[in-house]
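Workshop exercise sheet. Pairs work together: one partner reads the sequence aloud, the other fills in the structure field after running the prediction. Swap roles for the next sheet.
Pair: D.N. / O.F.
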Amino acid sequence: MVQWFHGASPKAQRWAVLLNLVYASLVVPYYYENSGMGLAHYAKILKDKPYVYGNHDMPHDAAVREMSAGEHAKSRVEVAEELGIKPVIVVERPRNTDAVMNGIETVRNSLGTCWFDERKCATGISALEGYRAEYDEEKKVLRNTPLHDHNSHGADGFRTFAVGYRPKQINKPYRR
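Structure field:
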């Protein structure tokens, strides 16, 4: 599966997460971020990798139709699928701060089952390590909201993956 995240900044991030059935772990072979490129660029990056992908989880705004997509307005989902990026799953936006904080806890709980390629995921790992809460200078306490900085886009992308990931049930063979 591929976790896509388009932040408010011009940067766009992709986490690739693969399921390792032998070790019941999640393998994260690479993290990729870039800015100013269209979906065709990312489709080429995906096709050039030696992986078979499952779902492509995209954030809620991927369903919005863009007027600049040609004669008829198309959503990012439609454009992605035309480029061979499928199936696309649009992930619901967290409804409130509690949902975001629960998602952060879900990330913490999932990290123990993940294997990251340290070299190919260095920037993404740095984003996860640097993700932190806002600080209230007046009250001298951490707020219950993440700080929006250069780390937040990559970390939010991984949070969206962790919240949306549902392991597929593997049926054990029947034995007499």
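Discussion prompt: The mean pLDDT is 83. What would you look at next?
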